[in-house]
Specification:
By secondary structure, this protein is α/β, with parallel strands linked by helices. It has 5 helices and 7 strands; from the N terminus they run ββαββαβαβαβα. Magnesium ion binds next to helix 1.
Length: about 190
Amino acid sequence: MIINKAELEAVAVKASQYPPEDLPEIAFAGRSNVGKSSLLNLITGRKSLARVSGSPGKTRTINFYRCNDEFRIVDLPGYGFAKVSRAESEKWGAMIEGYLENRSNLRKVVQLVDIRHRPSAQDVQMYDYLKYYGLDGIVVATKADKVSSNQRAACIKEIRQTLGMGKEDTVVPVSALKRTGYDKLLEVIETLI
Ligand SMILES: Nc1nc2c(ncn2[C@@H]2O[C@H](COP(=O)(O)OP(=O)(O)O)[C@@H](O)[C@H]2O)c(=O)[nH]1
Ligand SMILES: [Mg+2]
């Protein structure tokens, strides 16, 4: 699959602002700065569809990207930003839960983790949450250019073990910098929609 048309269709902080449930959706989740916006730009072939940020924690909205007029990629707000208050982080949780729990056209959530690091407690919590809702099974290991090809298998093994992934679940290493691995991700997305 190639995404040859992509546009930001809606920016939401509550359900009344979501677009209609008329197209299948794949959501992207991950801690802030993991490379979510970069990945979105890469797979849509758009340089600046999503804003790539040097300062993490900027995206506090749910962004709906309409792709090929066929499906949507939904960018969930990044978690794990150190400088947020308890109240803010609760608001974040409620916003994400509100979306994940009640979205009938949501097919799957792709969880992003940095290939270099063992998934954090929050990554594990997020993934457990996805398991609970049957939305788990696909993880993108971002910034794959940061580890050598010798290290790669060990990094992926650690991600699998830490998140408690099953044999049939998929980890796709992707580098937005080198523009590698995303064809595999697009294949996975295509099978889901
Ligand atoms: N080396 C490398 N850096 C990346 C890659 N993807 C993203 N980054 C960098 O990581 C930082 C955060 O990226 P961004 O896409 O804004 O992350 P987001 O907060 O998850 O949306 C930026 O400085 C990006 O340039 C990648 O594949 N390789
Ligand atoms: Mg972002």
